[in-house]
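Researcher: Next entry: HTH CENPB-type domain-containing protein (Rhipicephalus microplus).
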Amino acid sequence: MGKYTSYTAGFKLKAGQYALEHGNRAASRHFGVGETSIRYWRDQEKKLKVTKKTRRAFRGAKTGRYPNVEKQLVRHMRELRQDGCAVSLDIVQTEARRIARAQGIKAKEFKASSGWTTRFMWRHGLALRRRTTLCQRLPAAHEDKVADFHSFVVN
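Model: Predicted structure:
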């Protein structure tokens, strides 16, 4: 068996109730867990009562250090995607830096590194898709550019 074991919320509540009646040390011996775990679970009792009994830990998406920047960036990315534009990590990082500077956040404080960008995407359930040639809109002036290219090649 491994070094670490996770326990369900139901188990933790039973252990906490037993500890309430018999004491932390007795509960520790009875359930075969450390006394500190019993104390910790007793402190968590309110949270454990309102969660699913099969849940094992209280983990989840954390909030970033700059929630206003993230909120505006998510809005911007969704607008780009609705317009059919491809979004890359470089675009996300550049736009994040621009939004941060507009909010008065210094460059030393907020860098929009690749690690930050990856965590930001994960926090907000976003993903970058592989570029395809189908369904991506061409630039607004593409017809003029194509005509200029044709005239260049012919002449």
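Model: Note for the record: Residues 38 and 73 are 43 Å apart (CA to CA).
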